[in-house]
Structure prediction request, 285 residues.
Amino acid sequence: MSTILAAKNINKNYKKFQALKNVNLNIEKGKIVGLIGPNGAGKTTLLKAVLGLDSCQGDLQVLGLDPFKQRPQLMKEICFIADVAVLPKWIRVKNLLKFTEQTHPNFSIEKAKQFLSKTKITMEQKVKEMSKGMVAQLHLAIVMSIDAKLLVLDEPTLGLDILFRKEFYDNLLNDYFDNERTIIVTTHQIEEIEHILTDVLFIREGEIVLNANMEELTGQYFEVMVDAEHYQEAAQYKPLTERKVFGKHIMLFKTESKQQLEQLGEVQRPSVSDLFVALMKEEQS
Prediction:
């Protein structure tokens, strides 16, 4: 199966509030997709639908299954990390591994022990005795030991310092991801994960405002550092955003004519976070 997630005209209403508005997506296997949006944009609502935790209107298929009606079957092929605090504080590591082995058919306890042997975590430790970083390591070790086709990460490194965040994503990329698995991740630290993303989804007020792979972004969006001499000419091309740094104007353009922009100044690819801010402002205007 090449299509992991197929969504057509997905809508979700909470009384008078519409959390999702005609969402259309198609995610293939072997992708790392960043789902990015401001607070209240609909990210968690969409993930709940994908995980079968909440129903929605429209046609939603995850691994060829209806996530709400066929959730028990679907959860055998999905892993989910929301926040490191979800692990029970009272449980010991050895008991957590045994419980996971008993409840998830695709979990390898030996593989989990191999991952944990590279950390300072012991089998006798309780979750409440660990730092946030250690709990994240434990949670990731469990997830990486499950042979799942889809991994959903909702702010998985929230509250961790930069060293643990970097280690988390490095381990995920090096020890878990392959061309047969798919990862969907939401985070506010966009700049820390953009180097691992294959695709990005921008969501605002329940609507998808950008659905593109990183190669498309590289070919369509450009940042140009423009000096005073070329400012008026550059402004005629209607930049999406502009800001001033050290006396020069940094302008963001959407165009397929990179050569034309090179006449105006130094051209570079914008960061995903800069592009996100630009598109959010564009939608608001």
Q: What stands out?
A: DSSP finds eleven helices and 13 strands in the chain. The CA atoms of residues 244 and 250 lie 6 Å apart. The mean pLDDT is 89. Residues 162-175 form the longest helix (14 residues).
